[in-house]
Amino acid sequence: MLKTWDEQNCDWMIEASLFTGFHKALAQKIIPHLMPDDKLCDVGCGLGRLDFEIAPFVSEIFAIDMSENAIKLLKAEVDRTGVTNLHARHGDATALDDTFDVILMSLYGAIDAQYYINHCRRKIIRITGAGTHSGLYPARHRRNTKNAVPIVQKELAKLGVTFDLDLCSFEFGQPLKTWENAVQFVLSNAPEADTDEINEFLNEKITHTGRVDFPYYLPYQKELGIFIIDVPR
């Protein structure tokens, strides 16, 4: 959904997460695979919305991201909420200096799976996109993306590791405060779109919530594949 972790994109992400309950619902898929004494590393954590949901179910979470702004905001939220077992760090997740019970990677992109296996004692939880495009902007401007699930399946088969796969989908649309904000949101995803086609798209897709804070909502069902990977002992 995001291209960069600038202020506006961060606001949209947090608003979408809270409005839809996306990360709370996603956490319910992950929590059964966690143990109270787990030391977990979330690589490419972004704003850490998923980490806040799973923090009560593990001993410690070390959240790492390359974006200074994302980590700054995550640290501020940790301070505000008083979560004591969530530690945010700006850095390169391909240069881990420790070993963890669980490694979590959510929509992290291309990885060297063997590298993370070498830094993990128990399980890797890898969440990948299962859809081929986003429905949050006009179809003419959608950039097709590969369904990552079969790619990851093939990669794990080569490594000879066992895993469970859960194919699921969750609502993760965008709540919007004004029509102008809605136009800005679509334009951020499809900068080549002109005003007429953006307004046509919004008139077709947007729903009216009846709420004062977010009167508009752009629906989107996000398709995911959740891999629960057993680390060889």
Keywords:
233 residues, alpha/beta, Rossmann fold, seven-stranded mixed beta sheet, 8 helices, globular
Describe this structure in words.
There is one protein chain. Helix 7 packs across helix 8 (195-205). Strand 4, helix 5 (113-118) and strand 5 (120-129) form a beta-alpha-beta unit. The protein has 8 helices and 10 strands. The protein has helices spanning 7-20, 22-30, 49-54, 68-81, 113-118, 148-159, 179-189, 195-205, and strands spanning 39-43, 60-65, 86-90, 100-106, 120-129, 163-171, 174-176, 207-208, 216-218, 221-230. The mean pLDDT is 92. Helix content is 36%, strand content 26%. With 233 residues, it is an alpha/beta fold. It starts with 6 loop residues before the first helix and ends with a strand. It has one domain (7-174, 221-230): Vaccinia Virus protein VP39 (Rossmann fold, 3-Layer(aba) Sandwich), CATH 3.40.50.150. It is globular and about 55 Å long.
Which residues form runs of ≥5 with pLDDT under 50?
none
- CATH C-level class is Alpha Beta
Tell me the CATH superfamily: Vaccinia Virus protein VP39
Instruction: State the total count of DSSP E strands.
Output: 10
Helicity level, as a percent range? 25-40%
Which strand order spans the largest sheet, edge to edge or round the barrel? 3-2-1-4-5-10-6
Largest sheet: 7 strands, mixed
Any idea what the radius of gyration is? 18 Å
Assess the beta-strand content as a share of residues.
25-35%
As for the number of domains, it is: 1
- The CATH topology corresponds to Rossmann fold
Shape: globular
**N- to C-terminal distance:** 36 Å
Q: Decide which structural class fits the backbone.
A: alpha/beta
Report the total helices.
8
The CATH architecture name reads: 3-Layer(aba) Sandwich
Average residue-wise pLDDT: 92
